[in-house]
Amino acid sequence: MTDPRRTLPSVSALLESAGVRALLHSTPRGVVVAAARDVVNRARDDASAIPADEREWAQAIAERVALVQRPSLRPVVNATGVVLHTNLGRAPLPAVALVAIARVAGGYSNLEYDLEAGARGSRYTHCAALLRELTGAEDALVVNNCAAALVLALNSTSDKKEAVLSRGELVEIGGSFRIHDIMAKSGARLREIGATNRAHVADYSRAVGVDTGAILKVHRSNFTQQGFVNDVDVRDIAPIAREHGLPIIHDLGSGLLIPLDEIGLTGEPTARMALDAGASIVVMSGDKLLGGPQAGIILGASRWLRAMRENPLARSYRVDKLTLAALEATLTLYREPAEARREIPTLALLGATLSTVRERAERAHQQLVSAGVECELVDTSANVGGGAFPLMQLPSVAIALAGDAERWASALRAGDPAVVGRVSEGYMLLDFRAVTDGVLDGLVSAVVAAHA
Known about the structure:
Helix 7 packs across helix 12 (302-310). The protein contains 19 helices and 18 strands. By secondary structure, the protein is an alpha/beta fold. The chain folds into 3 domains: 7-69, no CATH class; 76-87 and 348-451, Aspartate Aminotransferase, domain 1 (Alpha-Beta Complex); 93-343, Type I PLP-dependent aspartate aminotransferase-like (Major domain) (Aspartate Aminotransferase, domain 2), CATH 3.40.640. Helices cover 42% and strands 18% of the residues. It starts with 10 loop residues before the first helix and ends with a helix. It has a 7-stranded mixed β-sheet with strand order 5-13-12-11-10-6-9, sandwiched between helices. It has a 5-stranded mixed β-sheet with strand order 2-14-15-18-17. The longest helix is centred in the N-terminal third of the chain and has 17 residues, at 29-45.
C-alpha cells in the first residue's frame, strides 16, 4: 500500500489554492507560509493528520495562522476564587484608569515637562501630591514595583551598613522571592535579631550601633504566626530609631489605603497608620489592595525621599506614563472612600455580598444547564490573595462541572476567553467571587464550547 505522505502537496501548491489565496488577502505572507509549512510537516510526521482535500488543507492552515497570531498576553476569566491572583495579573483596573491610559497613550504628554515653567520637569512629581494628601506623608515617590521600592530604600539608607530585621520577618513570597536576598542586592547587610517566633524591644536596642543604617519591618505576607509568639510594633521601635537618627523602613506589601472593616476584613494596617506609628519610610504595592496598576509606592520623610530620588538606581526603577496615568486615576477615587469601594474592582469584589455572588452563579448555572452542561451549584470559600489577610475566608459560590476535572481544566484554559478555575475533590470548580457581570457571558460561552 502506498504511503499517503508520498503525495503531500508542496507549500507552493498550497499557496496557490483558492482558500489559502483568500487568507493571503488579510494575513502577512510570511505568516501564511510558515503556517502552511507547519501543517505539511505535521502531516509528514503523522499520516492521520493529513487533510482529506483542498478545503481541509486551507482550514488547517487558517487554524494554524489563528494560533500563531493569537496574542501571548490575553484576557483570562478568573474563576479560581482568589481575588488578587498574582499569576492572573492581580488587580483589575477601575474604569477611570482605563480612560486615563487611553488619554495619554495615543499621543504626547507632560511626562517630564513642566507646562507652567516651560522647562524640563520630573516624572516623579506625578501622583506625589495625591499620595501625600491620602496618607499624610511628607513626600511620595512611585517606582515600578514594591521590590524595587524596598531595594531603593535600603540602598539609599543602608548601603554597606546593617539593616536590623527580626528573624520572624525573613519572609519568602511567590516565585522564591526572599527578603534577605533582596537586602543583599541592595548593598545592606542583614542584622538578624530575636527568634523565629519572638522578638522584643530589647533585641532592637542591642542590635543598633554605629554600623546600623536602618531598622526594617516587613509585612508577613501569606502567613501568620500563632501560639507562643511576640512581635514588636513600629510604635515601640520608634524611640530607638529617633535616639540614633535612624529611619524605620516598613514594607507593608499590600498597599491598603482605607480600612476595610465594614466588609469584614480587619487587622491589616493602612499606609497612614504605618506612618502615624513612626515609620520613616513606607513601601507598598500598587496592584494589590490599592487596586491599581503594578507599581511600588514609597511614602515618608522628605529627607529620605530626596535621597532616593537622587539615587542613580531610581532611574532603573522608574515607571512609564501609562502606569502613572492609571495610578493617578485610581488614587483619585480614594478621595471618597465609598466611591473607592464601589468603583475599584478589587474592593468591589472583596466587598460583594454572598447574595450578589450567588445571583451571578445562578444565572450562569441556568444558562449552562439549558445548554446541556451537567453541573451544580456548591457553597465554597474564596481568598483575598496578594499576601493580604492570609487567614480570611470569603464566603462564595461555585459551579461544579461534572466529568473529568483535568480535561475540563485543560479545555477551559485553551478557550477564548480562557477560563481558569480550580480542581477540588475531583471536580472542576468555577468560583464566582471574582467573576464580574462583564465576563459572565464569556465564561458561559467558554464552558459550552469546552463541553462540545
